[in-house]
Amino acid sequence: MMTLESYLPEMLATRRDLHQHPELGWTEFRTTERIVKTVRALGFETIVGRALFNLDYTFGRNEEMIRDAANQALRDGMDAEIMKELDGYTGCMAIFDTGRPGPVTALRFDIDCVAVEEDKTDANEAWREGFTSKVRGLMHACGHDAHTAVGLGVARWIHDNADRLNGKIKLIFQPAEEGTKGAAGIAFSKNLDDVNYMIGAHIGVKARLHEVGVIRSGFLSTTKYNVQFTGVAAHSGSCAQLGRNALMAACNAAVQLMGIPRHGKGNTNVNVGIVDAGEGRNIVGAHANMEIEVRGERSEINAYMEECAKRMISGCATSYGVDYKIETAGMATSVVSDTMLCDLITEAAKNTEGVQRVFDIDACPGSEDCSLLMNAVQKHGGQAAFFFFGCDHPGHHLKTFQIQDTESMPVGFSVYVKLLEKLNATGC
Question: Are 274 and 254 in contact, with CB atoms under 8 Å apart?
Answer without folding.
Answer: no
